[in-house]
């Protein structure tokens, strides 16, 4: 539980109108929150002693006030902001926090870190002794990739560890629901095959996300954040950069399918996959290398099948993280669920999941369609098909939430919308094996068809150039 840490005494009667507004307006404006705080400070001088009911109401008000101060960070305009200075730290360009932000005027030492899993106390125990609270924080922050340019900020907990948090200026409430779906999927698979993370919505426009420690985006690992470096630069310095390869695809983005395919094949001939060298370098002994490759293949198979079943799109190289120690994947930015990306993106995605050349590079020795990757994918698909009712139920719950990208009920008739019905029908077909025709396919045939579609030059050449299908 989070509340503002001031000893405030307040009489019962003046709270009534403020409390009514608190519950009627779940997300107050900053000015309203500041006025409430000023009112309570003035009332403190009166010396009235509140009862237990008033204290509970006050905690709700203070929690709303804290959310307002956190939202100030998530919604901070960074670009062209003269209050924010740029400095060099450890060879990286960092941004300095403006000291006039309201959150820095709070007593943060008793505030629990919002993005980590905390221990729940016994009923009636409102102490924070078992919670990991703020001890310190970095005076600088950085920006992540993406259209919204999320803020990455490191906070030190009272346990001495540093925690990275992502403050995003987008509606992240749907991400919470999708993460819950992944948790349900992990229970079906009877293991934590899908790594999940905590998401804390602050309102309909912003939220805080747990940073997946030890992970790096595929883009940063393979070609660098600027598309000019990374592993590809180290291993194939004489080849064109990812920037040049993307530019070649961009030039023919609006040309015929045949021209786009021809250019894509040409790019692939000039740009070599290099991901296998990461495993050679990090795990030089054959025994450890074999273990990591098995873990990598299992993670790739699980995420590929799950992403296809739930229709998770927008899988460009910045939205897929790679844990360099465990050799597993983490998928982030989960707004394009249930094939929403095929209806909303300017260039619709043509592949069922991302299994591009670099992603397959560590496994090429085993084969694709007839290798162990196809076997692992088939096993995952069979387990999901056995639990199809659970998946359909969770998907229906997501569609009924007003925060999702879908609208379950039409305003006029109250009946399910056409888009929602199509999304559920498409999901049901995938779980039945009828997603490619009337006749149901076995899981084995279905997976091999999907692998062919995911690696097809025709399909990859029609992807958006920023997706970097050659990577």
TrEMBL record:
- InterPro entries given for it? ATM_plant (IPR038980), FATC_dom (IPR003152), Kinase-like_dom_sf (IPR011009), PI3/4_kinase_cat_dom (IPR000403), PI3/4_kinase_cat_sf (IPR036940), PI3/4_kinase_CS (IPR018936)
Checking Pfam families in the record gives:
FATC, PI3_PI4_kinase
GO:BP terms for this protein?
A: DNA damage response
Tell whether S-adenosyl-L-methionine is among the UniProt keywords: no
Give GO MF terms, alphabetically.
ATP binding; protein serine/threonine kinase activity
The segment(s) forming the PI3K/PI4K catalytic domain are: 137-452
What EC number is given for this enzyme? 2.7.11.1
**Superkingdom, natural source:** Eukaryota
Which of UniProt's keywords are assigned here? ATP-binding, DNA damage, Kinase, Nucleotide-binding, Nucleus, Transferase
Localisation: Nucleus
GO CC, any one term: nucleus
Ranges where the FATC domain occurs: 439-471
Question: Keyword Nucleotide-binding, does the record have it?
Answer: yes
Give the matching PANTHER family: SERINE/THREONINE-PROTEIN KINASE ATM, SERINE_THREONINE-PROTEIN KINASE ATM
Under which name does UniProt file this protein? non-specific serine/threonine protein kinase
Q: Which organism is it from?
A: Caenorhabditis nigoni
Gene assigned in the entry? Cnig_chr_I.g443
């Amino acid at each position: 539980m989070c509340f503002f840490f001031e000893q405030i005494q307040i009489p019962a009667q003046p709270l009534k109108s403020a409390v009514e507004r608190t519950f009627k307006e779940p997300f107050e404006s900053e000015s309203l929150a500041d006025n409430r705080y000023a009112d309570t400070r003035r009332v403190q001088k009166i010396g009235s002693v509140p009862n237990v009911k008033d204290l509970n109401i006050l905690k709700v008000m203070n929690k709303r006030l804290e959310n307002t101060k956190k939202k100030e960070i998530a919604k901070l305009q960074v670009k062209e902001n003269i209050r924010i200075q740029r400095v060099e730290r450890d060879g990286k360009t960092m941004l300095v926090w403006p000291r006039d932000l309201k959150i820095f005027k709070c007593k943060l030492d008793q505030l629990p870190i919002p993005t980590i899993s905390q221990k729940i106390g016994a009923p009636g125990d409102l102490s924070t002794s078992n919670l990991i609270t703020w001890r310190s924080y970095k005076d600088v922050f950085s920006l992540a990739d993406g259209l919204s340019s999320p803020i990455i900020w490191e906070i030190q907990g009272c346990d001495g560890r540093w925690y990275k948090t992502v403050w995003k200026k987008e509606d992240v409430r749907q991400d919470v629901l999708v993460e819950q779906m992944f948790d349900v999927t992990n229970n079906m698979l009877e293991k934590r095959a899908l790594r999940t993370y905590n998401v804390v919505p602050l309102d309909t426009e912003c939220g805080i996300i747990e940073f997946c420690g030890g992970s790096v985006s595929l883009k940063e690992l393979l070609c660098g954040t600027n598309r000019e470096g990374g592993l590809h630069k180290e291993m194939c310095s004489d080849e064109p950069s990812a920037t040049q390869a993307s530019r070649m695809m961009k030039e023919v983005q609006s040309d015929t399918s045949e021209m786009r395919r021809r250019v894509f094949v040409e790019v692939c001939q000039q740009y070599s996959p290099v991901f296998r060298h990461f495993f050679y370098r990090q795990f030089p002994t054959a025994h450890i290398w074999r273990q990591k490759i098995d873990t990598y293949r299992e993670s790739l198979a699980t995420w590929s099948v799950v992403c296809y079943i739930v229709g998770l799109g927008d899988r460009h190289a910045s939205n897929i993280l790679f844990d360099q120690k465990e050799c597993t994947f983490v998928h982030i930015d989960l707004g394009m669920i249930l094939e929403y990306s095929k209806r909303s993106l300017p260039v619709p995605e043509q592949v069922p999941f991302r299994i591009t050349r670099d992603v397959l590079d560590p496994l090429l020795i085993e084969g694709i369609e007839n290798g162990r990757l196809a076997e692992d994918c088939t096993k995952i698909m069979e387990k999901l098909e056995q639990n199809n009712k659970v998946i359909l139920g969770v998907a229906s719950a997501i569609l009924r939430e007003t925060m999702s990208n879908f609208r379950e009920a039409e305003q006029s008739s109250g009946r399910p919308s056409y888009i929602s019905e199509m999304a559920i029908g498409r999901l049901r077909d995938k779980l039945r094996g009828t997603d490619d025709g009337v006749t149901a396919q076995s899981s084995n045939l279905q997976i091999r068809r999907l692998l062919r579609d995911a690696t097809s030059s025709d399909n990859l050449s029609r992807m958006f150039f920023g997706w970097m299908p050659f990577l």
